[in-house]
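Database export, one record per block. Field names are fixed; values are copied verbatim from the stored entry.
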Amino acid sequence: IILKNKYNQSTIEKEESNTTNEKFLVVDGRRICITSFIASTTMPEGRSSFVSFSETPDYLADEDDLGDLYAEIPMGPRFITHDPEFGSMTLSRRIARFLSRYKWYYPERDNPNVCLDEAWHFFERVTLPRYFSDEISKKTSGYDRAAQGETKRATSLYPVLKTPQEELADFGLGAGLYFAMARALSIILLIGGLVNSSSFAYYQSDKYITYEGDINETYFTVEHCGDWSGKSVCSEGIYTQTDEYKGEYTVNEGLFGFLLKGSAICPTTVYVPCYECLSEGNLEHYNKDSFNERRLSITTPDTSYNFLKKNNCKTNDIGHGILTFVSMVFVILAVILLGKYMLLAETRFDENEQTAQDYSIIVRNPPSDVTDPDKYRKYFQELTGHHVTVVTIGLNNFKLISKLTERRRLLHDLYFRRVERSGFTKLVKFQFHDLGLDTKQKIFGKAHAEKKDNKKFTEVTGNVELDYSETFTDEDIEQEENQGNRKLMAKIVKLEAIIRELYEEDYKAVKVFVTFETELGQRTAIERLQRAHEIEREKEEGDTSTDVLKFSDILPKLDEPVEPSAIRWQDMGVPIRTKFAQRIVTSFIVMNLIGLVVWATGMINKKYKPLASFFVSAMNVVVPFLCRIINHQEAHSTEGGAQAFLYSKITAVRWVNTAILFTLITPFQQTLDQTGLLTSIVLLFMSEAITAPFLSFLDLASNFKKHLKAPRCKSQIAMNNCFRGTPYFLAERYTDVTKVLFVTCFYSVLLPAGYLLGSATLMIYYLSDKFAIMRTWAPAPALGSQLSRWSRAFFLLSIVCMAVLSAYWWSGFPFDDLCEVSAQHQKTFKETVLNPLVEYMDTAEFVNTSKFETKDKEVEKLDKVVIQMNAYEFCDQDYLRNLKFPPSTFIYEHDWMQKNQKLFVELFGWISVACICVVTYILVGKKVLAMAQNPEDTLNDTKNQFIDFTCVSEIYAYIPQVIDEYFQYPLLACDLDNIDDNLIYWEDGERSYDYWNMIYDVPGWAPHKSDQRLSRVSGAIPDNIESVSTFGNKSPVFSVVAHYPPWDREE
C-alpha cells in the first residue's frame, strides 16, 4: 500500500530508529511505524516506494492523523530489492523480472494485491533449500542447512556443482543415501562393463555372425531376377551354392545401431526345411504365430514346401564365456558388498548431522490414559539421570485432524473462488461510524475501532487475509449469490458440526516421543529397558525385579524414532487391523493393474507390434502415478513407511513393465531378431538416460505454473502456491535406480552394452537429481534409512535374477527351437524331398510357376534368401518358460547345445543356485539369527558426539503437524504455548505460527486466543490464557507437547 497525505501530497521518507529495530515512515514530520519498508530501485521514475503493513493495525501512528491519510494503488510491476546477504538470485527469477515489464507476460501487473517478484522471493527463500552463509557459519566446515523461510540469519542457495556428496544428507538421511547409492552402482556397472567389453566386441565379430557349413551342409543364396510373381523370366537358374554365409545387419547406423551390433542379435539366419511340417496339419509343437513369423513357404504346382528361419550365430567361444562369467561374479559380489558400504555411509551421514533422532526415543506402548508430559519427564529422568528437554504425547485423534484439514481445504477453495470472481478490490470510501465493530477491528485494530469519528473518511484497498477461523450462518449461505460458493459454505458448516462431535470423544495416548538433552540419555534409556525386557521374558513366577522400571504398571517398549518431519501425525492411532486391511486391498488392486497391463500389451503386440513398446513406455508413466494415488489411501505411522510401500508397488510395476513383460510378449524364437526384444531394451536404456532426465530438467509442470499461471493469479496466496516446487517422492527415485540395475542384470548376457548404458544412466540420474533437489523440487520430509535398506533387498533380488537369467540365456542359444534330424531321417528326407526340389529350382519353370510366401503373405520381391538344405525338426530349447531349474545339461535334454555352451550352462546354472542360497541367508537368515540373539536391539552404532540438544542451532522437536499440498506451510495440530519457536523446522516470515495452527479453527471446545494477545513472533505470551490442550477436566483433544529448557531444570 502506498500512503500519501491527502491534501498536500507530501513526500514519504524512510527512517530507521538508532536504538530499536522499528522502522518508520516520515510524513510531514510525523512518524508512522511500519513492519517493513521495501524500497524499489527498478520502479519507473516518479513512482513511490512499496510499503507492506503488519496485520496488527496498532502499528499505525497517531490516531488523530488517520483520516488525513489515504491509499493509492501503484501501477506497474513491483520488485523486492535484492539483499546481497541472502545469496544470488536464480536465473529464472531474473528472466521473470525482465518479462514482468510486459503486460502479455504479467497481466496482473497493476493489481496492488499481488507481486510476482514476492512469489519468486517465496520460491527462493522457502521452497528451495538454503544454507547459512553468515560469519558464524564460516567458522565451521561444510554447509549447515537453514530452516524453511529462515529470516534471522543470512542464507544462500546450495551450489549445485560445488556441494559435496557428504552434504547431500542435509536433505535427509534417505536422500544422502540415495545419491551415494546411485553413484556407487554407476561405478560398479562401469567396471563390470569394462570387464565384459570383449563380449561386446565378440558379438560383432566373425566368430559370432559368420557360420561355416561342414561337408554335409549346402547353402543356396537365392536371388530374384524379376518379380517372384512371374512377370519377368530369368534366363538361368536363380541360386548359387556356397558353404559359408556371413549375416548382414539391417539396423540403423549411429549410436543406436552400434549398440545393437554389440548385442546378441543374430543377423546370420537361414531357412531350413522343416521335417515335421511338410503340411499345415503337423504343427502341434510349434506356436502358430511364431511359425508364421519365421516361415518361408515355397509353393509349386505340385506341392508346398515349408522352410523355417534358423539362427546360425554360435556361442561356442570359451573366452567370451569366461569374461561374461567374471563380469557377472564381479557385479554379484560388488552389490553384496554395497550393502556394507551403505551401512557405513549411513553411520557416517548420521554422525555428521545432529538431529532430534539422535536424542529421542519413542514409547510404542504408552499407558493410554496418561497424557501428562510431566509424568514422562519425571520417569525418564529418574531412569537415566539425564535431563529431558521435550515430551510429545501423540493421541489417536486422526479423525479430528482429518476433518480439520479438510475444512481448511474447503475454505482455501472458497477464498480463491471469491478472489478469482471479484478480482482485486477497488478504492472504497466509507464513513468510519458506518463500519461494524468486527470490520473496524480487522482494519484498524481494537484501539482505533473504539474511537467514534463521524466526519473523516478513509480509503482502503487490498484483499482480506484468508481467515481459517471464519464460520458461516444459515443467513450467510442464503445471501451468497454464487451457487458453487453456497455448496462449499454448506459443506464447511456440516464439517464444523462433525468436528464439534469429535471434540466430545475421549482420545488416548498411542505414541510418546521423549527428547533428552544428551545422546547418552537416549542410549541409557534404550539399553536399560532392553535389558529389563530380556529379564521379563526369562524371569520366574513371583520375580518382581523389573517392577521398579514399570511406568503405570507397563514396562515401556522403546525404539529410536524417525526424524520429526517424517512422522505422519494425521495417521496417528489408526488401528493395525485397519492398516492391514488397507494394504491387502491396495496390493490386490496393484496386482490386478499389473495383470491388466500385461494382458493389454500382449493384445496390442499381436495386433500391431510397434505400438506395444510405446504402450509399455506410457504405462511406465501412468501406472506409478496410479500407484501414488492407491498408496495415498493407506495409513502409515511414518513417511518412510509410506514411501517404502510405494517403492514396493512401483518397483513391482516397473520390473514387470521394463524387463519381464518384454520377455513374456516376445516369442522365444524371436529373442535374437533384429527388430525384437533387444531393440526394445536398448530403446528403454536410451529413454531412461536421455528422455527422463531431460524432462526433469525442463520441469514443464512447475515452469507452467511459475511463468504462465502465477502472473495471472489475483491473490498473493494463489501466486505463492504456484512456486511451491515440483513434488517428488524419494521412493520413485529409488525405484528408478532399482529398475536400471534390474534391467542391466536381466539382460547382461544378451546385451553386454547394458553395463555401460546402465552406468551412464545412473550417473545422469545422480547429476540431474542433484540439480533438481536444489533448484526445482518441493521440500520433502527428511526420511531416514528405511528406503535405502528396503532397496538393498531388491538389489539382492536383482543379482539373483542376473545369475539365474544368465544360465537361462546361455541354455537358450540359438533361440530357434530347431534341431537337426538324425542322419537316417536326413538321408531319407534329402532323397525324397530336397534333391528333387533343388533340381527344380534350377529351372526357369520354377520362377514362372512358383510362389514364395512368408508371414502368410505372398512375397513379390525378395532380394536374398539363404536356404540350407539340411532338414530340422522341433526341439524345445526354452528352459525358462518351462520352469526347468536349475538349468543343467545333466538334468534336462540339450541336443541343440555346442560343447563349450554346455560347460557354461552348467557353470552359470549352479552359480545361480549358490547365489540364491547366499541372498536368502542375507535377507532372512541373518535377521533370524540377530533376533534370536537380541530381539530387542534397536540402538544404532553411531558415535556419541557429546553435543547437547539445545546447543545444536538447527534442531527440531516432535511437533504434531500435517503436510498438505494445499498449503504453503505444514498445519500445526497442538498447543505451542511455552514452546520455543526454534523447535519447529519451518518459519513463515509474514505470519505467526498461530495462523497455521488448526486447533483455533473451530470454536466450541476451548476459548480462542484473545484479540489482545500479541503475535507469537513478538514472543509475548500472556499468563492468563488457558491452555487449549485441555478444557476443564476433559482429556486432551490435541496432542500434547511440553518443552523443558535445560536452564529451567528442577534437578
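Remark 1: The chain has a mean pLDDT of 77.
Remark 2: The first helix runs from residue 91 to 99.
End of record.
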